[in-house]
Design brief:
The chain is an alpha/beta fold and 155 residues long. Helix content is 38%, strand content 12%. It contains five helices and four strands.
Amino acid sequence: MPEKLTGPSYYLFLDDYRIPSDAYYYTGNYLYMDKPWIIAHKYDDFTEIITEKYLEDQLPVLISFDHDLAHEHYKNTETIDYSEFKEKTGYDCAKWLVDFCIDKNVSLPDYLVHSMNPVGKANIISLLKSFKCEYCGGEGYHKMSCVKSKNPDLY
């Protein structure tokens, strides 16, 4: 079973230019207004914050993901080859988070995906839902993100 850390938890918001209140205005989710969010603007910020806080026995209680984290991700084409880009995406952050949880034997934090990129959003949700079901047998470790959750805004 994954370990649960005992240090204080925090809220992590991943987005290259928006702030949590911006996400509230288009999602209507009050969590974006009610919580003291730490903001990570890019992949390196995201991994650094989680890694450093883990050393203090802390993990995020909730992470909100954007997918496109750099201007280059906003290409207006039908198919985008993200492997060509220098900056990593929110999906890359989600993949790193899965590896981190496995390596450290810790539970996947609850998460939201506020991205306006529907394909990127679906990819992040699919990855994290699949990992949660594989890693915890579909039972869920965090009451809000369990498959049986009553809160439809959390995954």
